[in-house]
Amino acid sequence: MAKALTIAPGDSVATLLEDAQAGDTVAGVVLRSAVPRGHKVALAGIPAQAPVVKYGFPIGHARRAIASGEHVHSDNLATALAGTGHYSYAPKAPTTAPSPASTATFEGYVRADGRVGTRNEIWVLPTVGCVARTAERIAKQAGAQLVGQIDGVHAFTHPHGCSQLGQDLDGVRAILASLACHPNAGGVLLVGLGCEENQVLELLAAIPPERHAAIRYLTAQFSTDEVEEGVALVAELAAQATVPRQTVGLDRLVLGVKCGGSDGLSGLTANPLVGRISDRVGEAGGRVVFTEIPEMFGAEQMLMDRAADAPVFDAMVGVINGFRQYFIDHGEPISENPSPGNVAGGITTLEEKSLGAVQKAGTGRITDVIGYGARVRSDGLTLLEAPGNDAVSSTALAAAGATVILFTTGRGTPLGFPVPTVKIASNSDLAARKPGWIDFDAGQVLTGGFEGAEAALLARICGIASGAATAAETNDEREIAIWKRGVTL
């Protein structure tokens, strides 16, 4: 008998926890064909056009009649998503009681404004792609000179900042300005070219004045030796950024949550495990930021039911329907997701992917909604406007102020971002095969349950927040990507 899991009462499918063959008995039914791990099997006959239910919610409808024991996937299951949505404000009480306040602590860098960083680094931010390599040379040379004085010097390059108009250019400036405010950056060097649309002084003006003491800038066209000047400015920033770590509680943590390269087990192991951590941080008075708006389609009403008040609900509707219209305006179906890797891992429709993905946000009230490039401003759970793309959304989480990102994956990825990015595998096979990518194995919940895994993951997060390197940091994987939404001149 092969192992499988039925998630909620009334589900019409079960998810395989291991590969199974035709004739194997799974969840009380006999398989009609081989079914890979993470894929679904029908628990009873499902009529044509009837809803297929997983997580207690429809994940689409049957393209044709599906027999008991049949593999349920792309050939016989179709999405039901189309157009913009119509939602109602019907707040619901939390279904789970709050846990006792966590006494977990970490060693962070307490800034003058009270925010707490998990790293003390100098960030070099180019205004435009033309000086991206210049920024990298400055960071490399300065970093070599400052080993042991600060946690690192890193350049975050991008190809944007010129030949852009309106909202497109505004988005670049907003992301860079928010990154320049990040508590993990003890100092920031802005490197401009001189003739670009994203002028360095305009970028500086988008940064709150109280942050300017930790910022320096240069314009390469007006510098005799921009690299030498940049290295000297970084050294100046590092001299004033040297501070000790201090013991603080989870209330000082800003957690970003993200999934990428998901599989059929992501919604059963890694994502709900991260959701439990999100709840612990929120209950402690900390902040949690979640995004990937297109990966909420089909699950958005259950999130909206958790809005703290009517204005938050209205803001959620605006962001989600705005993204739906974004797809429609470009002539694209809103259901054109999951990715080929998701499908190979057992995810069939966007509804299924969304119902698994939103579990990262736990069960708490959603207290705020912020736009792309904005910075978190409320305790508790914040919804951030950004697409599902791994690099773009993770960059937006960092810009919003996340000091640690929890990134769940069933397929694996080496990518890292400006802040410590904790890779959490949905299955133990991935964790074993890619130890150079993965920081935590959430597959253990299938054998040991959530309680022990939650305690172990929280301890790992606190260790990383206190300075332990993630796999991505060890591999020097630190990238940003900016959402390109407009024309190129």
UniProtKB/TrEMBL annotation:
Tagged with keyword Lyase: yes
State a single Gene Ontology molecular function. lyase activity
Q: Which UniProt keywords apply?
A: Lyase
Superkingdom of origin:
Bacteria
User: CDD domains, per this entry?
Assistant: SAF_AH_GD
The record places domain SAF at 11-78
Picking any one GO biological process from the record gives: D-galacturonate catabolic process
Record family assignment: Belongs to the UxaA family.
What name does UniProt use for this protein? Altronate dehydratase family protein
